[in-house]
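Incident log, structure service

09:12 report received: a user says their structure output differs between two submissions of the same chain.
09:20 pulled the input from the user's history:
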Amino acid sequence: MNLKNFLPFLPLILLTGCATGEFTRLTPGAQPRTPNNLYPVETAFNSKQQSLRWDSIQAYVLVNGESLPLRRVPLVKNRWEGFVPVPSGANSVTYRFKFDYLYNNFGTAPKPSSETSRAYTLKVLEQ
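09:34 re-ran on a clean worker, output below:
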């Protein structure tokens, strides 16, 4: 294959090489109702993107139109935890994880990017 035949595929190869994040929900899909209506959630984020700057990650849980911060789990590189509010009259809530970060770019300053997980549902069980 000569270079002329290869060039049209170069953008596709570069784009597929940048697909990065994989989220793993580490909390159960159902939890007993709590008095304060806050429920712990935890996720692991893994990426094969070598240019990702792990120290720049700002993690959030998106729920009911709000972006709530997650905190890094001590001593573990790729885990974050936080709380999801569920109103007292509701018995479930849908949420997503979102990670904003910087990645190193050739010849320029680091660039911003983000990854968002699929939607998860938390069911609240009455006791």
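09:41 both user submissions now match this output. Likely a transient worker issue. Closing.
09:42 reviewer note: DSSP finds two helices and ten strands in the chain. The CA atoms of residues 11 and 115 lie 20 Å apart.
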